[in-house]
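Researcher: Here's a chain I'd like modeled. Treat it as a single chain, no partners, no ligands.
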Amino acid sequence: QVQLVESGGGMVQAGGSLRLSCAASGRTAYNMGWFRQAPGKEREFVAAITWLGAVTNYADSVKGRATISRDNAKNSVYLQMNSLKPEDTAVYYCAAQIGVRLGNRESEYAYWGQGTQVTVSS
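Model: Modeled as a single isolated chain. C-alpha cells:
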C-alpha cells in the first residue's frame, strides 16, 4: 500500500512555471507517474519515471516543457512544468504503478493521490 499527496498546484500566467510535488508514504518502491484531467475531458498521461529514476517517459503534449524527477530518500516525485499554456489547465494526479515496464495507461497504476489544481491564464 502507498499513500500519495500532491502539492504545488496553483494559478500561473501562460509562459510561467510550476513545480508539482508528490509525497509518498508506505511502500514506495514503485514506478511513478503524473496524469492530468481537464474539465470535460478524460484523464491523460503526462509523465512517468522508473523506481530508480533511470528511465522517463513523457506525453508528446509536454515533451520539452516538463521534467519528472524523484528523490527516493525523501519518498517524493516531482513534475517541473515550464512554458505553461492555458491547455495545461487541469487537475494533476500522482500515481504509483504496479509492474516493471514503465506504463502510460491509467489501468497500469494502482494507487492515486487526490490531485492538485493547475490553472494557466492567458
